[in-house]
Amino acid sequence: MTSATALRATIDLPAIPRSVPAARGVLAQLLSAWAAEPLREHAELLVSELVTNVIRHVGGDAALQVEVQLTAPVLRVTVADSS
Q1: Which of 24, 31, 25, 38 lies closest to 8 in space, CA to CA?
Q2: Quick one: which of 20, 23, 27, 57 has the fewest CB in 10 Å?
Q3: CA distance 27 to 19
Q4: What angle do CA 48, 20, 29 make, to 5 degrees?
């Protein structure tokens, strides 16, 4: 992969507690598929915290979206809610 090549995925989830392990699991699968497993531990911690914050502070009927982008060597993880 060259530095100009970006890999991107978006995951839509409800703002419920089960979304935390779901987001971690999908992120781990993406990083494995993208040969970026060395980033996994920190990325899983980050996505867990961000998704938990949405659930804790927004929750209810809100939806959340996790976007993962890898432009080697930089991994970008964003979480947005529908509120």
Answers
A1: 31
A2: 57
A3: 12
A4: 80
* 41 within domain boundaries: yes
Can you read off the two tokens belonging to residue 18?
């089960």
Q: Are 73 and 15 contacting, i.e. CB atoms less than 8 angstroms apart?
A: no
Q: Considering the entire predicted model, what is its pTM?
A: 0.88
CATH classification of the domain holding 50:
3.30.565.10
Catalogue the E-assigned strands of 1-83: 6-14, 63-71, 74-81
Residue 64's domain comprises 6-81
Residues 6-15: what's their mean pLDDT? 95
Q: Collapsing DSSP states into helix, strand and coil, what is residue 18?
A: coil
Q: How many domains does the chain have?
A: 1
